[in-house]
Input
Amino acid sequence: MRAGEAYPVEVGCGLDVGALAAAALEVGDCALLTDSTVGPLYAGRVRRSLRAAGWRVLETVEVPAGEGSKSLAVYGEVLRRLARAGLMRDGALFALGGGVVGDLGGFVAASYMRGISLVMLPTTLLAMVDSSVGGKTGLDLPEGKNLVGAFLQPRLVAADLGFLESLPRRELSMGLAEVVKMGLLAGGRLFGALQRLAEALAGDAGALEELVLLSVSFKAGVVAEDERERGRRAILNYGHTVGHGLEAASGYGLAHGEAVAAGMVAEALLSRRVFGTDLVGLHERLLREAGLPVRVRGLEAAEVLGAMRRDKKRRGGEHRFVLLREVGRPVWGVEVGEEEALSAVEAVLE
Ligand code: NAD
Ligand code: MG
Output
């Protein structure tokens, strides 16, 4: 499959990363970036595959697992490790890990020596279906998440489903939240494949492969039309307007996938109000099958609205939403008044 600025996206089990990378870009010096959970499990195997295809792996940088590594301090440390290893402008960076390693590695590759080649080797379901495709990279600041970043399209994405065997079930659910979102946005075959959510959550390789392939090609198609998010790419924020509000109001105690799940239910309620189509029960059923909550505890609606108001994507006086006219027919930039937004948020709080 080819995505965005025409880079290959490979999905399969037991991929030969070294050979795939040799086909996508010129073989030479490279470095491997990973985290402290993924590195001990898979870095050795990946290095062997790279070396067998002729790559010179100058350095493996292992950052602590978790969101804390998307920081200026860790970013600076990674740059210095690459410089000390002697990686040059024609080198490549392989990002082996979840969305954190992908976002950090992407920003390193975008900025080190004004830009080097990036290969994404996603190891979480979320990274496979969402963060590794689309070209957004980023770091967090103490002032907020993803406030620093650049657009950089990878030269190759190789999603080896074998990596998912060690992924905790809860992390699978986090990825499935985005899969459900894309199924509702896409309709057609991807929506049909949502019948296999429970199998996917149980680790069924066939179900996971089908959902990953269809999700990635949907996201890649949307992004290819609108790489810099000036128009239709905004549909990928379905569930995220309320979702970000819930996450921020919880002080980021609530996981992103859980916040987006409840956020989609709230936005389905708004869709019903605006378009008269009732997809609320469908949302709740799919999200439960994916192991996700459809309500959130312990938050006040006013705090959530406050956080939504501060969200960087909000313009003017109204709240703007991506809503669903029906499955497969999203509409973006729909303005909704404060009171309607408040009542939709209240409905997903308990
Ligand atoms: P993550 O990278 O923190 O991974 C989650 C946890 O799973 C980590 O502890 C990690 O070490 C562990 N892990 C990863 N792969 C594993 C495996 N195969 N087996 C066992 N454990 C494994 O988080 P994530 O959910 O993958 O990504 C979240 C990040 O992605 C956030 O920072 C978010 O902002 C970013 N994101 C970016 C984009 C984008 O377009 N760039 C899109 C969505 C999310
Ligand atoms: Mg998301």
